[in-house]
Write a structure and sequence with these properties.
The complex is a heterodimer. By secondary structure, chain A is of the alpha/beta class. Chain A has helices at about 5, 60-65, 110-115, 120, 130-140, 155-170, 185-200, 240-245, 260-265, and strands spanning about 20-30, 30-40, 45-50, 75-80, 80, 95, 175-180, 205-210, 225-230, 230-235. The chains are: A alpha/beta, B mainly alpha.
């Protein structure tokens, strides 16, 4: 069941079921709300950017959608299913975390890491041609084909980030969820991301990405959601950078600003 | 002597095959803790007249699952919980072994530091069967175990059976510890899980190649260790570990020399 079969570019699922449907979601850490009463619906084919200052709750929203942060109230539906029903659709989600997790005590090649992304589709059977090809294609798509047998630790930060995108693509997902994919990444890798996401969206894929700044991704984002202090303050067209910073409720707090204590200790954090 | 060698070879093969996952997860010393817990199982076996190996497998598996639950919960109190488990385990073991009538401390030492020369035919059969299980799990499920040890959060999002795999890895660790008990002992088993992996990854680039090289190093160190112990009449378990550590030190030093030379002579190296 490749994407081309069950979701052609021209014809969206006719019932109009949203890919992501968050209703009244509240997430709290240690009793302190990080996300309050958030509603978000993402339809097939959309490229949605979740924007907001550091600590606004945008990464938490993504974690809640992925089932990594427990909801206090509200619900999350993916592909029209909630709770344990989501499990049947997990292989359709490609998740790109901010950076590689702690588990890198042993060297691993680019090929090995990307192949681990294919397991979601593979089930408990031996890899076939139909598994190896998408892995190779995903590595090529992010421009790392000649680095397949190199250890991930030998790559630059931006290249490592591209490995994580390739790992997500290897499962041939319908929904890509990216958490700050371009944060601290070199320009070449940012452009590579933009190309990969453009191709993915052109193939009918749905994208949800968290960003502090969009950079070269701006042109392919179809809708922007701005989060501030755990609430959605804007949902619609992509605000231009100055406009987004000028939005009501945006404190314009930067880590290097003199008043950054507001951001650190205030409700913002 | 022959049985000692076979038992050591089995241990040298499977300990790194399992240990690589623990190293990958940066939990290299967890095998040591499970070894501590297994001693309670040995004590129970001696006290009840059962087979110490079997009770050790059961108690170590229960302990490993408890360790896994502590790990999942995380938090600052995790270390304390592990300390309670590990030292409770080894104290319980010493206590029970002492209680069992007619047993001496020499017996305890043989479980703590290994006594491959006393390996019976039955021991060997048990080791081979359990070792085969460990080998099957670590080799056949390598992609899945790699995935959960490499990036557990990603594996969960992708819908892999993370919890089941974690428990399987915990139980397999317990089985490995018990298999290694006869050859290198409960206090040294962790070294054979970790040191060959550390040695291999000095020169390897990928996970699979690291695993195979570590298993090779484990087997060679075991064979050489048993051989040296036979010639010089030293403790086989400790000798095996010393050989493994010597291999690490030699390779690390050799690589350091080569790389330093290449830095000073960049043209010749190219």
């Amino acid at each position: 069941m490749s994407r081309a079969d069950d979701k052609p570019v021209a014809a969206r699922p006719t019932d109009g079921t949203p890919i992501v449907d968050v209703r009244g979601a509240t997430v709290a850490y240690d009793g302190r709300p990080v996300l309050t009463d958030v509603d978000l619906r993402v339809s097939a084919g959309e490229v949605v950017a979740i924007l907001g200052p550091n600590g606004s709750g945008k990464s938490t929203l993504v974690k809640a959608i992925l089932g990594l942060a427990p909801l206090v109230t509200g619900s999350v539906a993916l592909f029209g299913e909630t709770g344990s029903g989501i499990r049947r659709h997990r292989h359709r989600i490609g998740y790109v975390p901010q950076r590689l997790g702690a588990g890198s005590g042993v060297p691993a090649t680019v090929g090995e890491v990307v192949a681990s992304g294919r397991l979601a589709r593979r089930g408990l059977r031996l890899p076939r041609r139909a598994d190896r090809d998408p892995v190779a294609r995903a590595i090529a798509a992010v421009g790392l084909a000649e680095r397949t047998h190199d250890p991930v630790s030998a790559l630059s930060g931006g290249q490592q980030q591209r490995v994580l995108i390739a790992r997500a693509l290897a499962a041939e997902p319908d929904l890509l969820v990216l958490d700050e994919p371009t944060a601290g990444v070199d320009a070449a890798s940012q452009d590579a991301f933009a190309d990969v996401l453009r191709a993915f969206a052109a193939g009918g894929g749905t994208v949800l990405l968290v960003a502090h700044e969009l950079g070269p991704l701006q042109s392919l984002v179809t809708r922007a959601v701005v989060i501030h202090s755990g609430r959605i303050t804007h949902d619609g067209a992509v605000p231009d950078p100055t406009g987004y910073h000028a939005l009501p409720g945006h404190d314009h707090v930067h880590p290097h600003a003199r008043n950054d204590r507001t951001g650190f200790w205030g409700p913002d954090w | 002597m022959q049985r000692a060698l076979i038992g050591a070879l089995i241990t040298g093969l499977i300990a790194p095959a399992l240990g690589i996952y623990l190293v990958q997860r940066r939990m290299a010393l967890i095998g040591d803790g499970i070894g501590h817990i297994a001693l309670t199982g040995v004590g129970l076996g001696l006290l009840t007249g059962g087979a110490p190996v079997l009770t050790a497998v059961v108690v170590a598996a229960v302990g490993a699952v408890a360790v896994e639950l502590v790990r999942q919960r995380g938090g600052a109190s995790g270390d304390i919980a592990l300390a309670l488990l590990f030292y409770g385990g080894i104290s319980g073991g010493v206590f029970l072994v002492a209680l069992s009538a007619g047993r001496t401390n020499a017996n305890l030492t043989s479980y703590l530091f290994g006594s491959p020369l006393t390996t019976t035919r039955t021991d060997l059969v048990v080791m081979a069967v359990l070792g085969g299980l460990v080998l099957a799990v670590t080799q056949l499920l390598r992609p899945w175990l790699f995935a959960i040890c490499h990036d557990e959060e990603y594996a969960r999002v992708a819908g892999l059976p993370v919890r089941a795999l974690n428990l399987l890895l915990a139980v397999t660790t317990a089985v490995t510890v018990t298999v290694a008990m006869r050859a290198v002992g409960l206090l040294l088993v962790s070294a054979l899980m970790v040191v060959p992996v550390a040695t291999a990854q000095l020169v390897t680039r990928g996970f699979r190649s690291t695993m195979y090289l570590a298993m090779t190093i484990g087997v060679l160190a075991s064979a050489l260790g048993v051989g040296i112990a036979g010639v010089y009449d030293t403790a086989p378990g400790a000798t095996i570990i010393l050989v493994a550590i010597a291999a690490f030190a030699l390779l690390a030093t050799g690589l350091g020399v080569v790389r330093g030379w290449r830095r000073r002579h960049p043209v010749a190296a190219a």
